[in-house]
Structure of Tricarballylate utilization protein B:
Amino acid sequence: MPSLEALTRDAVALANGQAATAEVARQMQICNACRYCETFCAVFPAMTRRLEFSVSDAHYLANLCHNCGACLHACQYAPPHEFAVNVPQAMAQVRQQTYAEYAWPAPLGALYRRNGVTLALATATAGSLALFLVLLLAARGSLFHPPLAGNFYAIFPHNVLITMFGLAFAWAVLALAIGAMRFWRGQAPGAVSGASAAEAARHALALTYLDGGHGDGCNESDDRFTLARRQFHHFTFYGFMLCFASTCVATLYHYVFAQPAPYPVTSLPVLLGTAGGIGLLVGPAGLLWLHLRRHPSHGDPRQRAMDRGFMVLLLATSLTGLLLLALRDTRAMGLLLAIHLATVLALFLTLPYGKFAHAVYRGAALLKWAVERRQPNRLQLGSD
């Protein structure tokens, strides 16, 4: 039976969630009357299709928002005006509700409350590191060893790594997919056409709505427009995809061409992995730098620990991977390998329950908008 403390915590969370969705509805009604920001991003033309805003509408618009800040800096009703319109902050608070409500398994949605995600990141990283250090000591009897010509499998057997990381990655994909499907069922947007799917993919891959609606970018710490966050997001995303491509090519080499690792520095898996690692170094470092300098009215201050924790974990993953590549022929290879594998495992285990979830729900929201904008706008309050 749940404790009184747990019941109280759930009641407070429910009340906070209702207040956050009500605040989004209030601000959207003001914005509907103004519509100055209608061309900034997809949120505002989607808003004009509604006179009232349900919980599902609030979740949809919150995930359609890219938190670029342009509307806040342009708004005549922003604080200290009595209307206190701050769309990026209101949307950020509702986005966290989305992650908590649709998380699978449902009890893990509680991680999004009380900085649970930050604690989970730290616990997963520490636990993974302890595991691999124990395996290293069991395999070599020491944290250091004679050079092994970069042969990782001389320390951790290939089948052990494949099983461990395959299960962790499959769990992350399954949890994110179930969460996205639950979100999608609650939206009921209608049939998805090839054109709408292609449009949503284009906007997601190009980060279209981080250009501020005019191509000059968004606002970070002041009223100056900048494309920096869009560019650092691209470094992060495409760096991740290059690392994934490296893993896929290495799998092909291993199983199809019977060429197990280690691979030469000039081989395709290493070149892809190196390029991806550099992207994952530049991107998260830049995003963290912007996050530390960003205007305090942007986003939800309660989520900063979660956001920064994820950026630091991405940085640690790329940095340890590049160090491992540079020093793989030394006595420290086993220790560096253990540290790198620990950060990767922690990343996989926490993907569905941290900042990464925003990419999945934002993609779903972009797809709904691509579907919705092809349907008649019965209110005729704005143009698409």
Q: What stands out?
A: The two ends are 51 Å apart (CA to CA). Residues 4-14 have pLDDT under 50 and may be disordered. Strands lie at 218-219, 225-226. The chain has 13 helices and two strands.
